């Protein structure tokens, strides 16, 4: 099965640490405000989701969503969540650790596009 979003081993370790501190987590791909276009990590229930958000997959047991408008631009792209040193200027939970989540991307092949699972509305994930 082809996944729309993946996670690096280093990011998995950070997710484990954040989950231990904050409980269940959720990721939402920022659309460019404040810290650019970055994956943001929240405690589940801290971000209100609705039908303007789409679930594109799970990373290390955490739902990963983005706005429907942004998804229209990125629907042909596989995302990989990683980390980098340095503080971002977002509200994401990893910022106090002196690191931030980042996205690396690549285009799907035609064969992969045909194998992608459907996305779901954010209100179905909340």
UniProtKB/TrEMBL annotation:
It comes from the Bacteria. InterPro entries: DUF779. This is UDP-glucose 4-epimerase.
